[in-house]
Design goal:
- The structure is a homodimer of 376-residue chains.
- Chain A has 16 helices and 16 strands.
- The termini of chain A are far apart.
- In chain A, helix 9 packs parallel to helix 10.
- Chain A is 41% helix and 19% strand.
- By secondary structure, chain A is an alpha/beta fold.
- At the A-B interface, helix 13 and helix 14 of A face helix 13 and helix 14 of B.
């Protein structure tokens, strides 16, 4: 085997938390790192150069979505997903198992893979572990994810066990199907909310020769304490010298909690989706820009924020833009939220280096971690 | 009377065409100038700083829309429309007569003004010439437009005459209602497509003490040769030492034609609206990004363009973004089109200075001037 396509340098530790540097074929990524979600090859409302300027060096995209439209062959012909997007940094693609399960009108999970119909044109498709690898090979992403079955919540223990075992068999097939030496491949731990299943799944996946390891199947509806418990349990079985990725999580508080467990990488639609719904993350908690109390508020979203939105626009103007349905509302709030998440990661990196992650976690306002949005 | 709130320095002439500099309370605007349309206090899909970087120094907004939402008093309290938008340049506001006519569910034009119901909440409103001035005073725009009746096309001569006469009486009332010495006020010529009415209207409006003069009621459905004929006729009666503004026009070819007639200022939704519909203006004519021929086209929209869109994205990626409904498609195409229009104005300015406007007009590709979009 050639040299590993990615490497994680651990620069500092604070308890289980690690501050590191992930070396990818498309540059270095300081960790802990949040990856903005660019499902269809674009982070909604943002330009790639803006993501770069905020400090992001890796984004997430989705193999299922890109395979359905515009097609993996097209992207390969255009030079790969980074060139296609005009993105200078690294790209991790989710395999699309989650989307095949949640979006496709008809789907059936079998030993071979996931049978479904495209959510766009109803075309029958079969996503096997081998096909997911082949799609991601064509996309040319820096990090590929093995196809998994994202176990629904709630799931009976028997089903959850069967599902985690299927994911483990698919993990082995994914590794065998891999051909591109310059693309990393991560395995995914499942096991729903059952400690014994999580333990077994984590041991099985960790025993395989992946370049990194992800904890999946969380933030799918389970109570938050259970999510955190399962995330921590899963992490404890993952190799210390490889990157650990907690998929689909979460709020600022969740991220700091997971960083304290030793996770290095994260993705979540919260900062981008909430922005389009008028919700901003700030150092004083969440701000719902719809609220009438912002009507004549000439202050920025966050007086302690250094983003372009806070330097340029008042809450009053943002509220007007949101109510008027202007694209600039989505742009301004998305940029602010992604800046907030990037700053959070920089704070976490610095805190780990100085051994003060606990203090940082305690300074996070409760409101910022609340799942619910303030309502008008 | 104090010094005029705006002044036009004529720097060069080429036939009837003028290359000038409009001095406003919010800075200088090189003319001929195109004003991007920011109806609701935002140019759709763009950030103010991007407009500035492209070279725009004046944008258009709409008094009717802003009065309905968020309200002129609110904007006054927030420091005026420029501060509210976070825009460093000048703002011209249309009075909203056109919108009151076209958007409001019930409207009736009488001697006093336009009675209508808000297109948002159905609230009964009466827009008088005095109210339009008062709203624009509160908005704090650099250039106010007098309330006019935008005569519908087609219009019978008798109705068109009556309408133009009403606009003339409203023009006098607008001037009397004006109180803010630091805001310019422009009058508007009507007269539909009838030469005698245009002549009369232009003479009447030109005789009044406006700071600038606009030709309105064109590009409302009449054949293009008639539009150009009426625009030229109207311009010939407008004072040579004041700015001349052709409202709501138009294609790149229309703009050059109107510049040759001696117009200095323009606004049109074409570059921004067409962008959101997937249509780009290029040096080789219009490009409809939807078309399947762009599927694997790695070239930019325009190989001779210096905009960020053309530096960053292939036609293939833009087509994907458009089909996927990504906001970045609207952003990228809008920025390109506004860059194209800004470049066109810079070319016109340079051509007038060097006496080569005729050559510039002949070099404009026919396709760029076509009203119709290419269809897939």
């Amino acid at each position: 085997m050639t040299a590993a396509p990615i490497g994680l340098e651990i620069l500092a530790r604070d308890g289980a938390a690690r501050r590191g540097r992930l070396i990818t074929p498309h540059g270095a990524v300081e960790t802990p790192a949040f990856m903005p979600v660019g499902t269809q090859g674009a982070v909604k409302a943002m330009a790639p150069a803006e993501l770069w300027d905020i400090g992001y060096r890796m984004v997430l995209s989705n193999a299922y979505h890109l395979a359905v439209r515009p097609g993996a062959d097209l992207i390969a012909e255009m030079g790969g997903i980074q060139a296609f997007m005009g993105w200078k940094g690294a790209v991790l693609t989710d395999s699309g198992g989650f989307q095949a399960m949640s979006l496709a009108s008809i789907n059936k999970v079998g030993e071979d893979g996931i049978r479904f119909r495209s959510h766009l044109d109803g075309r029958a498709m079969l996503l096997t572990p081998e096909a997911a690898i082949e799609i991601q090979r064509k996309l040319g992403c820096d990090i590929m994810m093995a196809l998994d079955e994202c176990t629904r919540y709630p799931a009976e223990p028997a089903y959850a066990r069967q599902s985690a075992e299927l994911t483990a068999r698919w993990a082995e097939r994914s590794l065998r199907a891999r051909t591109a030496p310059n693309q990393a491949l991560f395995g995914i731990v499942q096991g729903s909310v059952y400690s014994d299943l999580r333990r077994t799944s984590a041991r099985q996946i960790a025993a395989l020769g992946f370049d990194g390891f992800a904890t999946g199947g969380l933030s799918v509806g389970e109570p938050k304490p259970l999510m955190l418990e399962m995330a921590e349990l899963s992490a404890s079985f993952l190799p210390a010298d490889k990157p650990r990725y907690l998929m689909g999580v979460g709020t600022p508080g969740d991220l700091l909690a997971a960083i304290a467990m030793g996770y290095d990488m994260f993705d979540c639609v919260l900062p981008t989706r909430n922005a389009r719904n008028g919700c901003a993350f700030t150092s004083a908690g969440r701000v719902s820009i719809k609220q009438s109390r912002h009507l004549k508020d000439s202050r920025p979203l966050d007086e302690h924020c250094g983003c372009r939105t806070c330097a340029s626009y008042s809450r009053s103007y943002l509220r007007h833009l949101y109510r008027a349905g202007e694209i600039l509302a989505a742009r301004a709030l998305t940029e602010h939220n992604l800046f907030f998440y990037a700053s959070l990661m920089r704070s976490a990196q610095a805190a780990i280096a100085s051994g003060t992650l606990g203090e940082l976690r305690r300074s996070m306002p409760e409101a910022a971690d609340s799942e619910g949005m303030e309502e008008e």
